[in-house]
Amino acid sequence: MTRHVVQRGLWFEEFETDVVYKHRPGRTITEADNVLFTTLTMNTQALHLDAAFSEALPPFNQRLVNSMFTLSTLVGLSVAQLTQGTIVANLGFSDIAFPKPLFHGDTMYAETVITDLRESKSRPGEGIVTFAHTALNQHGDIVATATRKTLVRKKPTGATEAGSA
C-alpha cells in the first residue's frame, strides 16, 4: 500500500509558543497586484493609483502598495505552513501597524510567532491560537505587523503525524 501525505497546517496541539515560523517563499509585489487589489476593493486613494500625483508627494515620491493588500499578503504567506485545512475561523485582528511602506517591486517575507494557545471552553475539539505576524521587505525592514486570533481544530482521532490520509 502506498502512503499519501497531504499538505496541511498545524493541528492545535502542534503549535509551539516562542518559535519563529519563517514563511517561504516570499512574494514580490507588482504594480498589477497593487492596482488590481486597490480597484477591486473600491479604494480610490491616489497614493495607490495615480503615478503623477504620487511622484509629486514627498517623502516617497512614488505610489505606495495598498496597506490592506500588505496585510492580506502577510496573512496569506502564513497559511500553507500554519493553518491550511486546520483553521475553523479568524476571530479577530489587533495591533496592526505599517512602520514602512511597500513599493512596486519589493519582495515581502513573513514570520509568525505564536504568543498564546488555549483550548476553547465552548467548542470541544478546537483551540484558540494567537499569532504575531511580521512582514519584512527584501532589505529586512519591517513593513507590517499584526496580531491575529484564530480558532484551530485539534488533531482528529486517528490522524497521523505526517497528515497521511
UniProtKB/TrEMBL annotation:
It comes from the Bacteria. CDD domains: FkbR2. Residues 18-133 form the MaoC-like domain. Transmembrane segments: none annotated. InterPro entries: HotDog_dom_sf, MaoC-like_dom, MCH/BMMD. It holds the Pfam family MaoC_dehydratas. SUPFAM superfamilies: Thioesterase/thiol ester dehydrase-isomerase (SSF54637). PANTHER family: BETA-METHYLMALYL-COA DEHYDRATASE, MONOAMINE OXIDASE-RELATED. Belongs to the enoyl-CoA hydratase/isomerase family. This is MaoC family dehydratase. It comes from Antrihabitans cavernicola.
